[in-house]
Amino acid sequence: MSEKKYKLITLDELTEKIARYNPDIDTSLLRKAYYFSHEAHCSQKRVEGTPYIDHPLSVASILSDMRMDTTTIIAGLLHDTVEDTETNLDDIEEIFGKEVAFLVGALTKLSKMKFRTKEEAQAENFRKMFLAMAEDIRVILIKFADRLHNMRTLQYLPKPKQRRIAKETLEIYAPLANRLGIGWMRIEFEDLSFKYLYPDVYKSLLKKVAKRREQQEGYINEVAELVKEKLKEYNIPGEVSGRVKHLYGIYRKMQMQKIPFEQVYDVLGLRIITDTKFHCYEILGLIHSLWKPIPGRFKDYIALPKSNMYQSLHTSVIGPKGERVEFQIRTEEMHRIAEEGIAAHWIYKENGKIDTKDARYIKWLRELIHSQKDLKDAKEFLEVVKGEVVPEVVYVFTPRGEIKELPAGSTPVDFAYSIHTEVGHRCIGAKVNGRIVPLRYQLQSGDTVEIITSPSHGPSRDWLKFVVTQRAKSRIKQWIRTEERKQSLELGHRILEAELRKRGLSPSLIKSETMEEVASSFSMKSVDDLLVSIGYGKVSEKQVINKLIPEKKETEEPQIKKAARREKKAKGIRIIGIDDILYHRAKCCYPVPGDQLIGFVTRGKGVTIHRKDCPNLERLAVDDARLVDVEWVSEDGAVTRARLYVETVDRPGILANLSTLMSSMNVNISNLEVKTTSDRRAHLTFIIEVKDRQQLSALAQKIASTDGVLGVRR
Ligand code: MN
Fold this sequence. Notes:
Blueprint: H1 11-21, H2 27-40, H3 54-65, H4 70-78, H5 81-84, H6 89-96, H7 98-112, H8 118-135, H9 137-152, H10 159-179, H11 183-197, H12 199-234, E1 239-244, H13 247-257, E2 268-274, H14 277-290, E3 292-293, E4 299-300, E5 313-318, E6 324-331, H15 332-340, H16 356-372, H17 378-387, E7 393-397, E8 403-407, H18 412-419, H19 421-425, E9 427-432, E10 435-437, E11 449-453, H20 470-502, H21 513-521, H22 527-536, H23 541-548, H24 559-571, E12 573-575, E13 583-585, E14 597-602, E15 606-611, H25 615-620, E16 627-632, E17 640-649, H26 654-664, E18 668-677, E19 681-690, H27 693-704, E20 709-713
Parallel strand pairs: 2-6, 13-15
Antiparallel strand pairs: 1-2, 3-5, 4-5, 5-6, 7-8, 9-10, 9-11, 12-16, 14-15, 14-16, 17-19, 17-20, 18-19
Bound molecules: manganese (II) ion (MN).
């Protein structure tokens, strides 16, 4: 995969490009639009120092790549004139007509909106785009082209701006392009954003993919040749070509499945394009008869298209040399839809009529917009679309026979929240096809789902472990946040009241003005916030009273805290902003000095120290109010328990080698568990004593390079 270079285009080249697919092009109107835009922008320059007209011209060029009609291309040339210059829409309407003026007006409106917060801007922007799209999809296509050119020239902007624009592109433009089925644009949006947001990861993946190509291309070509021969033999038409997964697609797969690059098997694959649906299945059969398919990897998106109308057959097989090969099989028409999506509809046509296939698109778009209408606020809407970027879906039924589309892996709880927030909150059980199932049951296409509710029930924190839709996640978290806050507020109030009484002070002090000052001295917005913090155990009631009545110093300390302080000193842990609090280290992630740490406060139990990347945190820390910053300074001679998982081949001598290695590094093994598996592998869990993260990773590296070791992780 190499990076593309973009060349500036001239008006003549643009005209020629359009004429290739639209011989009836109104050249003089196009020229007029060019000079109109040139005139309007004549005093402006792009950040890169080039004349401004290069931007609208490039936008028009992208639109001509999409084979758009002349109206769209002219609107593309004029898209910034009203916003940035003296021009008004009446002028445009007079010269270029109503349609162009409408498009330019809509684009101007889209970019003019001002918002209080970035989040609000993002969400509202997104909703507005959707509404504009409902009026005329071409508004969005021009907006996309505009953003694409800005992304292609992003290197000229200052770093923070690059990041902001790249983030917005990744979060809004890419999912929207995906929803609209414009595959090539989504890929370009994603890879360009990826490059600016995670430059290091991007570069290293680029290298790894190039290397993988070098290693496997020959092999893939061999497989392709075999398939071509077979197609000829059976007289089935089909073009076989190699495909490389795009970088961000690889990155996302690694993230979602928590796997290293080496385990992404579909980086290189083959695509077969044929003429009919029937032939797609025939080719599939042919491939499965040649090589063994990998169970669970076959997807029939022809019979069950993705919600953006993507259609294809996907399968992975164990190829001739025992290596995996992924195939995508589709018709030309399906390929066109996968690449162009909704844009295919606006492609220039001789008679300007919509054919039946395009009418299908319009219907789909209407349904999409309709289904989003009942989402009240823009943020919620954004969440819904953002959360389900790659919709591998299941189709399930309500008891009344209505069909619902949910992301694969969805549970009855996801289903319940998709019906209504209240149904989700009150859900206590579910029946699938008439039988009671656990709430974590994964719905299958064709299931009929009935939710059992009880008015007195609320959601459980455990649900967060298995729900997959963004909607369910955010609703559950919101509920827990509100509940926990309510409870902590009550608890904090009671604790403080009791402490005041104990010292012969009036509980009415809680309502006093001094209390408000105390709250702000803890950087809290309100007394309630302070009480919540007391309830969580993040702030102690004694600290509060010491500030409330400064002259009365507490001298006595409870035993437990003294103990805590001693431990703290011994191990050098500092919890930022908190003095006396009990803490212990989490058993799930075994933090050591040098790790990025975070504390999680539980009333009565003190602070549990986790690694920042501990997977349990996401589930625990629904509420930021319960997290505290923690530092850990390693002290001379002190050691801490850490855990290492090592996978090895099951062969005598390996364990001995490892323990020799550890003692040579002065690492003490305090516990070891060994499990062997039927495929002759051993899983070793070491609990060891190390000084800090540095020593631990040095050790892990040495273990990894030991003969017979297959993998090491914490
Ligand atoms: Mn622009």
